[in-house]
Write a structure and sequence with these properties.
Chain lengths: ~575, ~200
Amino acid sequence: MSFLSRYIFSTNHKTIGIQYFVLALTAALLGTALSVLMRLHLTYPEAKIRLFEILWPNAAAGGVMTPELYLSLMTMHGTIMVFFVLTTVPQGGFGNFFLPLQIGAEDMAFPRINMLSFWATALAFLVLCSAFVVEGGAPLAGWTAYPPLSAVGSIAGPGMGKGMTLWVVSIALFCAASLMGAINFITTILEMRTRGMSLFRMPLTCWAWLVTALISLFAFAVLFAAGILLLLDREAGTSFFLPAGLVINDRILDRKGGSPLLWQHLFWFFGHPEVYIAILPGMGVVSTVLSVFSRKPVFGYRAMVWAMLAIGFLGFLVWGHHMFISGMSPYSSLAFSVLTLAIGVPSAVKTFNWLGTILGGRLHLETAMLWALAFVSVFVTGGLSGIALGQPALDMYFHDTYFVVGHFHIIMGVAAVFSILAGTFYWWPKMTGRMLSETLGRVHFYVTFLGVYAVFIPMHFAGIVGNPRRYSDFGQFEFLKDVQGLHKFITHAAFLTAAVQLLFIFNLIWSLYRGKKAGDNPWNATTLEWLPPSHQPHIVVRGAYDYSVPGARRDFLMQNESNGQ
Amino acid sequence: MTRNETTWEGGGSPFAIGAKPLGMWLFVVSDALTFSTMLMVYTYSRLANPHWPAPFAFSPSIVQATVMTFVLLSSSLTMVWAVDAMKRDDRRKTVQYLSATMFLGIVFIVIHMREWVHLINDEHITLTANPWNQPLFGATFFGLTGLHMAHVTIGVVYLGIVALGTRMGKFKTDHVETSGLYWHFVDLVWMFIFPMVYLMSVKR
């Protein structure tokens, strides 16, 4: 096998999993760097910062960011993080690597489509990043790309010309890649399970990947169509999202008949399920890690499965809660609100089952377990502010404030990243044959865990004061004078949290060379990926979480193991 | 072990179909969502704009669209025969029926293109403008029918590849059946477009 077919255009699920992982790690570093630059500008809006001038000689001439540059960084930060990190690692990275191993399949059902979907994702990332260097720079429209400004071209500002077009193309490519991935995952899970691996014997990670793939299949198909329509509005002169009588930058547009609200409906029909695409695989990982490191079966395995299915289903019925202030009928708001709060039920089922899993267990507080516990913590914290935002009356006030920023960073960003880190510490021995350093891991964990709370909890307070989001400078507002100190604190906490991530990167690289060699099954786990490589298919005889089975010869029984007394 | 258990056990295929047809079913599901989005956008635009035009005369527009519907329905029948012949391992017949399906697909595209040219040149309906100053009429019409026509075109090429592979003995029943699923889906989409786009826009 040549280098090219082995490492670059490989159809092997493990290689593709690693490729996704590396791509997303690159994206995560870039996205984090952008957020650090944004915080720097927000806290010191007047300061002349040499770094800005080096990076953007025009948009940050003299070392001060223009508001447009700030918005473009925000747009790219959001897009990169949501699509190329939160959607990519848990499903594309871990899913590709471990799904076939966990269900005892040789590979994914369609290996070539798998390769294609990775390379389409990588291309989408390149197209998106190229928006930085084209004329006008990166788009300003945020990751939600609301029209009319996203649909009219460069008259809406620098970056809304070529940069915005590249954004739409990138997202359309990403949709196509995700659809291919989703088809592959569902087919693999339904068709490729080894003997005895009934659906209800699958590890919860596999269930999570299945539900996530189902959501992707529906959601990305809609975003794909919406993206094409936005592209037509931009490039072919149609007016799907443009009403009559628009005046932008002193120019009257000659479009008519369309509605910017239509985009909001289509976008959020994708956008809300996207939240679950990001977090469900993490829920699967966390369920498994909590069980392994508590040496207890997952509490309420079937309830966990049904809760995930319920979350996936309800997730499609709540998109309107992003649009409470759009002028939508209050009756629709009420319906969307009730359905939104209904998601609290399966979410609570999961949370209580996680607590039930660790209750009375023999807890091994390895780094992977710490991340899983931290996931439960931030999931509850972020979920509670979600209940506030799900009320139309409260959302009228909180909408477009830092309260929302704090909320979705904790529930979507931080929770999903914590589950990714739990998965990384848990599976790294399988992926590389080496253990990550526990000492470095713990330092990284504690600083990050306290750091993210220090960053995002104060944002809720700023939001309650009425601090709007997406502003590049709060200096002019008398009523925001008092929160400047808060923002300074957030920025410093963010710098510390971002800096300590370098420790994690160092840990990854260090372990490749110096890490302790891992055996086949370093955590004494039960699922099939921890069996030594074999050319014989495994025959599964039991469920995925048989820990501390009474009367068994040791405290775990692998899925292919009969009760060896 | 009950029958239910064996069905859901690993190794068996849950709906007694192979990986390829299942993959195509899933593609069809997601593609149906894409078309639904387009139909929803069309309906939304139509309701949001008063004085939406109804320009299609019974002849030639509706007659033509009816013929196109008939052609596409017939192509589904020949597709069924192709899958059936393949199941009986009659490769010669399979290729013949696949060719007939492709032919009907091409007839559909030709009639459709002629209609497009007529609308653009004679009725002055384009993607962005039309005589009634309702730009979204053209945008939704060409958007929907264009997306569908792209699917038919891809389908014709796809069936060509399947016919070739069948003739050369490389492809199995699964391949033909999978292409059949795609073709029937594209046909089914037209069954929504025909009433929603054509019949609801008959000139009164």
